[in-house]
Amino acid sequence: MSTKSRRVLLAAPRGYCAGVDRAVQTVEKALEQYGAPIYVRKQIVHNTHVVATLERRGAIFVEETEEVPEDAIVVFSAHGVAPAVHEEAEARSLRTIDATCPLVTKVHKEAKRFATDDYDILLIGHEGHEEVIGTTGEAPEHIHLVDGPDDVARVQVRDPEKVAWLSQTTLSVDETNATVDALRERFPQLLDPPSDDICYATQNRQVAVKEIAAESELVLVVGSRNSSNSVRLVEVALDSGADAAHLVDHAGQIDDAWLEGVTTVGVTSGASVPEELVDGVLQRLAGHGFDTVETVQSAEESLIFSLPKELRRDLRIV
Fold this sequence. Notes:
Blueprint (H helix, E strand, L loop, with lengths): L6 E6 L5 H17 L3 E4 L6 H10 L1 E4 L10 E4 L6 H9 L3 E4 L3 H15 L3 E5 L5 H7 L6 E4 L16 E5 L5 H14 L13 H14 L4 E5 L5 H12 L4 E5 L15 E6 L5 H12 L5 E6 L11 H7 L3
Parallel strand pairs: 1-11, 1-12, 2-3, 2-4, 4-5, 6-7, 6-8, 9-10, 9-11
Helix pairs in contact: 4-5, 7-8
């Protein structure tokens, strides 16, 4: 197999977004400040490597609040939780640290505001996703889940002239727009959220993968299978011209057969993926002759979120 003129197009931005960085730092700082164990409800972010690394440092991941011993410290994940979860924690005298991404918190606040004004809320998202469960918990009597354009026909509301839409923050921008268009055909008075719900990092990574996919026979997306934004990147790559696209947790999951006859490989990573995993993929590709790496920069990111207030107080951070 010839190795002539092989290259990698490396998408930028990629990897950690501000919300993920904040959430991971929250667990790390909590372990330093309070000592192990620190309990975390659900995966702090959807990445198996990050979770395993934090487990080795003393984090204990649980599915439900009732699994946390009374009076212990529990961190809520970046995906957000319903008000009932906060109430359960308080009832069990748990010390809580809320690592919900501020952009998810924004959607929660929008849901509460629309519900207060007695709107039916059409929440575009994937059934069972933790973020959707948390947002729905803010106003369960008002929120109807819409899982893509094909789901629009079944939506039933009380008043077609009093309907608003919100979305999960990690969706495909294009599919969400298609869903909103279909909803607006049914409900012409559909009210938009005050600002875009799909987070800046999700949008930026989708724009970047579109650029590299147009020139790549193969796109490798580093990310875990339960990461919604990572799965969306594979779909966007295929829709944008790549002959093939695969999701891999790490370099060891790359099938050498994927590289046969390929001269250009696009590489990107989901918003919860540490850069060391991307480095491993680049090393694996270099071993197959893909030793020219060209960075394709589509946006600059500088947003930083402060740590949760409960942790800042004990760390004495203003």
